[in-house]
Write a structure and sequence with these properties.
The protein is globular. A hairpin with a 4-residue loop joins β20 (365-366) and β21. By secondary structure, the chain is of the alpha/beta class. Helix content is 44%, strand content 14%. It folds into two domains: 1-393 and 432-497, TIM Barrel; 398-428, no CATH class.
Length: 497
C-alpha cells in the first residue's frame, strides 16, 4: 500500500549548494518515511485545535472535524498545498536602512538570536535567580546590540507590572536601545496587533517587518487558542511566524528519536497548514525545538546529545520542504554559567547549525530555557562565532589553494608578512573576544581571570558606555501612548485555554 503523500512530496526535496559544511542525520529514505508518517498522523490521528476560527478554516477546506472534542483530521492534500504556498525566503529588517536585516532561505546566511519570553535572571556569581526588572530588559537589549554574533533580539519580560501586556511593554523598552530585528514569543492575536503598531512607529519610513514571532504547538498534538490566534493574526499583518513544537521525547512524544521527530513534524505541518490556508504566501520559518526526558532525574532536558540529533533531523525536514529553518540552538539545563553549560550548549546546538539551520536560538539562556544571564549571553555570542565559522567550511579555489604564495615563500621561510596572508587572515579565521591566548605566566600576571570573569568584564564595559537611543522624541512619545492604550485593552483580554 502506497504511503499518503509519497509521490508528491518529491517536489520539495532540495540539494545543498557546495562550499558550506553540512551534516546529514537522515538519509533520503528516512526523510520520506518521516514525511509520510507525519501526514498519516494528521489524517488518521488528528490534532486538537482550540481556536475555533482555525477549526472552521480547516473544515471549510475539507478537513474532517470532531467539534465536540475540538479535533481536526487534516488530509494530506491540504498539507501539500500549504507546503507549496509557503515562501522559500523570509526577511526581517533592522531599524533603519543601514542596519543589518536577516534573510532566511535554503543555504543562505546563518544567524543567531537570544532566547525569548523569559522573566527570570541570574546576576553575576549569584546563587539564586531573581525576577526580571525593567532595567534588566534595557541592559539585555544594550548588550545584544553590541554583540557581533547575535543578530536578532529576543524579548526579556519584566515582572514589575501586569502580565497581560508584558510583551508590548517589553518591546516599548527594547526598541529604544537597538536597531536589530526582534523575535518575540506569541501570547495572543491582540498582543501581536499592538506589537505591529509599535514596530510601525519605530520604523518610521523604514522597511517592515522588524519583528518575528514564535508560535508553539503544545505536545502531544494540541494547538492552543492564544498560540494559534497569534500565528493567524501575524500572518494577516505580514509578521513572519516561526512555527514550533517543543515535544519532549518520552513524555509528550514517543521515546524513540525517530518517533518524536514524526510527531514534531506532524504538529508543525498542522500549524503551517493553518497559517497558509488563512493567508497563502504568509512568511513562515520551520522552527522545531525538541526536548528529551531524563528518566533518572524526572525532568525534561533541552541539552542532552539526543536533543542535538533530533534538532538536526528536524532541520533536515525543513530543508527537505525547501523552507527557511530555525533551531532552538545552544541551550543548557545547567542553572549557572559554568563549564557544563558550555558543554551542553555545544552538544545541543552544534549539530542543527551544521545541518544548516538559518536561525539558531538559545543565546543567554540557562536552566532549560528558564533563566537568562548577561554573562552567558556574552559567552554564547562567542560560541556562535566558532560554530558559524565551522559551518562556513573551506573555500577552495585558485586563490585559496595558494600555490603562488607557496612558490613565493619557498622552503625555510614564513608566511607571516606575505601579501597572501595579509589579504586573507581576517576572513579566514574567527578571532574570539573571550579566549585566553596568553602563556601561563602571562595569564597569572594578568590576574588569572577565567572565562566567566572576562565575560562579566565585557558586560560591565558595554553597560558603562553612554546609552545610544534609536528613536526620536516624537517616536518615543507615540510608543508611550501605544503602550498605555495596549495595557488598558489587554487588561480585560481573556484567552481560553
Amino acid at each position: 500500500m502506497q504511503e499518503v503523500g509519497a509521490a508528491s512530496s518529491q517536489t520539495y526535496h532540495k540539494t545543498r549548494s557546495a562550499g558550506s559544511l553540512r551534516i546529514s542525520i537522515l538519509d533520503e529514505a528516512h526523510i520520506e518515511y518521516i514525511h509520510t508518517r507525519s501526514l498519516r498522523v494528521l489524517e488518521e490521528v488528528g490534532i486538537v485545535i482550540r481556536y475555533p476560527p482555525a477549526r472552521q478554516l480547516l473544515q471549510i477546506a475539507g478537513a474532517r472535524t470532531d467539534e465536540a472534542r475540538q479535533r481536526v483530521y487534516i488530509p494530506h492534500r491540504l498539507v501539500e498545498l500549504a507546503l507549496q504556498s509557503a515562501p522559500r525566503r523570509v526577511t526581517v529588517y533592522g531599524g533603519h536602512p543601514a542596519a543589518r536585516g536577516c534573510h532566511l532561505y535554503l543555504d543562505g546566511p546563518q544567524y543567531a538570536r537570544t532566547t525569548t519570553g523569559l522573566n527570570w535572571i541570574l546576576d553575576h556569581r549569584a546563587a539564586r535567580r531573581r525576577p526580571v526588572t525593567a532595567k534588566d530588559t534595557v541592559n539585555w537589549t544594550r548588550l545584544i546590540h553590541r554583540l557581533p554574533n547575535i543578530h536578532l533580539a529576543g524579548s526579556l519580560i519584566d515582572q514589575e507590572a501586569a502580565s497581560r501586556a508584558a510583551e508590548v511593554r517589553c518591546l516599548a523598552r527594547m526598541v529604544h536601545h537597538t536597531d536589530k530585528p526582534f523575535v518575540f514569543s506569541a501570547f495572543s492575536g491582540e498582543g501581536m496587533r499592538w506589537l505591529w503598531r509599535m514596530s510601525q512607529v519605530a520604523q518610521g519610513n523604514g522597511r517592515l517587518p522588524r519583528l518575528m514571532v514564535l508560535s508553539s504547538v503544545n505536545s502531544p498534538l494540541t494547538y492552543g487558542w492564544g498560540q494559534c490566534e497569534a500565528a493567524m493574526v501575524s500572518a494577516e499583518l505580514g509578521i513572519p511566524v516561526l512555527f514550533n513544537s517543543s515535544a519532549v521525547a518520552g513524555v509528550t512524544a514517543p521515546v524513540t528519536l525517530a518517533g518524536a521527530v514524526v510527531q514534531i513534524n506532524a504538529e508543525m505541518l498542522a500549524a503551517l497548514t493553518i497559517i497558509q490556508l488563512h493567508r497563502p504566501g504568509a512568511p513562515v520559518v520551520y522552527a522545531a525545538h525538541p526536548m528529551a526526558f531524563d528518566m533518572r532525574a524526572g525532568m525534561a532536558s533541552i541539552s542532552v546529545a539526543e536533543v542535538g540529533l533530533m534538532s538536526a533531523a528536524c532541520v533536515q525536514m525543513g530543508r527537505y520542504y525547501g523552507l527557511p529553518t530555525a533551531s532552538n540552538g545552544i541551550c543548557t539545563d545547567t542553572c549557572t554559567p559554568d563549564a557544563m553549560a558550555t558543554l551542553e550548549k555545544w552538544a545541543s546546538g552544534y549539530l542543527p547549525a551544521i545541518a544548516g539551520a538559518n536561525l539558531n536560538g538559545g543565546a543567554g539562556s540557562l536552566a532549560c530555557v528558564g533563566t537568562v544571564s548577561l554573562e552567558q549571553l556574552v559567552i554564547d555570542s562567542d560560541l556562535y562565532g566558532h560554530i558559524f565559522r565551522q559551518a562556513r567550511g573551506l573555500t577552495v579555489d585558485e586563490e585559496t589553494l595558494a600555490f603562488d604564495a607557496i612558490a613565493r615563500v619557498g622552503p625555510g621561510r614564513d608566511y607571516l608578512i606575505d601579501e597572501h596572508t595579509l589579504r586573507h587572515f581576517r576572513e579566514e579565521f574567527y578571532f574570539s573576544s573571550l579566549a585566553n591566548r596568553l602563556s601561563a605566566p602571562a595569564w597569572e600576571a594578568a590576574g588569572s581571570r577565567d572565562t566567566l570573569e572576562r565575560a562579566h568584564q565585557v558586560v560591565e564595559e558595554i553597560l558603562a558606555q553612554p546609552e545610544t537611543r534609536f528613536l526620536s522624541e516624537e517616536q518615543s512619545r507615540e510608543i508611550d501612548r501605544l503602550l498605555k492604550a495596549a495595557e488598558e485593552t489587554l487588561a480585560t483580554l481573556e484567552i481560553p485555554t
